[in-house]
Amino acid sequence: VQLQASGGGLVQAGGSLRLSCAASGFTFSNANMGWFRQAPGKEREFVAAIRWTGASTYYRDSVKGRFTISRDNAKNTVYLQMNSLKPEDTAVYYCAATRSQYTTVVTTTTSYDKWGQGTLVTVSS
Fold first, then answer.
1. What does each C-alpha distance from 65 to 30, 51, 81 come to in angstroms?
2. DSSP for residue 63
């Protein structure tokens, strides 16, 4: 099982980044996928999630209207498009997959049993 996140980097406030997470070793099309982030000295927090069908998406309030999660089941990849970035978005971003497609809650870390290594996003003011 592997989740390989990429696309992080240094960007100025107001800029954009697109994160990608390539999955392998499990049935990606049956997994709900999420993005979480962890800033230095803080707990890991939910950012966005997408159901295995792609029909439903979820966002934390502070990123609504700026971030968009999407998936391409043919490529076993989930994306996070981040626009209008702010310094407070600075963190290591992790992608994750749920234990089951039937997982009801997708906004908590405990719903996920597969995690990527993280990619650093730094937003300068």
1. 27, 19, 11
2. G
